[in-house]
Amino acid sequence: MEYVYAALLLHKLNKDITEDTVKNVIKATGANPDEVKVKALVAALSEVNIEESLKSTPMAMAVPATAPTASDNTQAKDEKKEEKKDEKKEEEALEGLSSLFG
Length: 102
What we know:
By secondary structure, this protein is mainly alpha-helical. 70% of the residues lie in helices and 0% in strands.
C-alpha cells in the first residue's frame, strides 16, 4: 500500500514515477523499499493513465459537520423541559407512595 501512496504522491507533485523516485519516497519515511515491489509497481503504472483512473474511481465524500441552528437549540430546550416535567411527576408519585407507608 505504501508503494501506491508513494506513486500517488509523486503524481500529485507532477514528478516522474520511476524506480528511483518511488524508492526515495519510501526511504524518506524511514522504511527500506522492496526492490521487487518497486519494479512491479513502476511497470504496472507505465500502462496506466493515473489521472483518468482517479477521475473514474468513486470517492466517498466526507460530510462536513454543521453548527447547531436556532431550531436545534429550541428543540434541546424543549427536551430539557420535558425531562424536568417527567422528573417532577416521578417525585410526586414517590411522595404519594411515601404518604401511604408513612
